[in-house]
Amino acid sequence: MSDAPVVVGGYSDVLGYDELSSKDELAVVDALADTRSSEIVVWVPEWLGEEKSIEAASSSDQVFAGVVDHETENAWLIVQPGGAEDWIPKSQGVIFERAPDATLPTPQRRLDNQGGAA
């Protein structure tokens, strides 16, 4: 996996990562839609997500939001509001950041806004 963040301007920018299920793709976009400009969203495999002490950001236990407070050659230290923090190995995580001009309505949010969700 890459050290560089994936810059997300729209839902389609999250597609194409074989590791992410469609549920995780939606969770990443939903989390990015709710982040501040300094925050990132990171996806990790299920086994690693279960071990993390930071709070999941969305409907997936594999998606977390926070600020990269420190970075080493092998890991990012993710800090969340309230002070919770944990290290994410670069070899296991994918970091996503919101593009300044991002438009991030997910298919589910579009249905909710149109009153089409049950």
TrEMBL record:
<feature type="region of interest" description="Disordered">
    <location>
        <begin position="99"/>
        <end position="118"/>
    </location>
</feature>
<protein>
    <submittedName>
        <fullName>Uncharacterized protein</fullName>
    </submittedName>
</protein>
